[in-house]
């Protein structure tokens, strides 16, 4: 007699006919399959429920499942563990209302974290400007990853999302409000601001642009400003995803230049730069300037300002500049800017010289950009990501975005940024256009002028008692760009910034 075991069931083969034996084997196989499916379903449900309640609880299980069901993927580096929170007795709360556009506010946030650290304060998540020309309703968490901002700085500064209720107006508390003095060093904050905090417990800085000096600040505070700027201020996942998609689209088509063409309505109105505009356009820009009472400079002589290099280049001037610098007709150029004043009519000469001009609006669908419409700071964040990643960055005006992108590109290994000497450029452009300077002479002069203005390592230029005229910390945070004895060689006097 032969006895076989099938899945734990003993079958007496001499007693059963062949069809029955085959049917029995089929039943056993069916039971095995059903059992396996049942166990797999239970495991999947368990993982799903675990992720719902404790997203990280079952991460090891899901990783093992992925390893079984997929080809191995390159290891993604884990975020560094959070440093222990700094233990200190807070002297009070610091509220800040940032003013200006995205990059002006970004620099201000870095400064205010540094002030909070210096004075042992608790910083309330900064409030962003909603009343400026752009009227952007975005809050901090709409642009920056607020959780990352708080956690990544916990070893330096305690940051809270909002003031405790006991300090709200509802409970009768009135915070002391003031703008700190511009370009101030640590002595000002320790001697003038800290006593105010001790008295009022909550201090509200209602303006924050350029409120910390560029130079003569202790090294640890300078490095903290960099840490906030380069590490703590991450854009939201939505902004980063779309920004990196733009970069990927551009890179797939080859190297590209990011041209920060600051030829926008607000820039022209407030600077008074109307070179190349019609009389009607110049009048419109002047009316806009008068419509904003807080803008003190009303009557402006455009050509005089342009001759001093204080105006952004026009699209026509930008085309000549890029050609003189040696960029070819097929160069891919990304316009990092909002709506160009005069729209496609003013862009026509630039587009004729460089047909491969693109903007975010031409690279992305309306649906992709819809969530960012009417949010100028979020749109500027996309341009910021692309500008930092570009092969070459060319700003036509040295505003806040130009300076902060320049600083980021220095931090990433001194990536090529062509920093224009606009005063000299205006002279050369006018001579070429009036026929006194040939194209070859113009091109040679433009290249020689900018030979040492390509974002190479340099020391910041210091102008005693004139902080507005010296190099801006965030454009060249030299204290954060190298370590040890190599710094002196890298930032030797022969590499010092030139004026202009």
TrEMBL record:
Stored CDD domains: O-FucT_plant
Protein's organism: Prunus avium (Cherry)
Protein family according to the UniProt entry: Belongs to the glycosyltransferase GT106 family.
Keywords: Carbohydrate metabolism, Fucose metabolism, Glycoprotein, Glycosyltransferase, Membrane, Signal-anchor, Transferase, Transmembrane, Transmembrane helix
Name of the protein in its database record: O-fucosyltransferase family protein
One Pfam family linked to the record: O-FucT
Membrane topology: Single-pass type II membrane protein
MF-aspect GO terms: glycosyltransferase activity
Biological or metabolic pathway of the protein: Glycan metabolism
Main location as per UniProt: membrane
Residue spans crossing the bilayer: 29-53
GO cellular component: chloroplast; membrane
Gene: LOC110751411
GO BP, one annotated term: fucose metabolic process
Localization, UniProt: Membrane
UniProt-listed InterPro entries: FucosylTrfase_pln, GDP-Fuc_O-FucTrfase
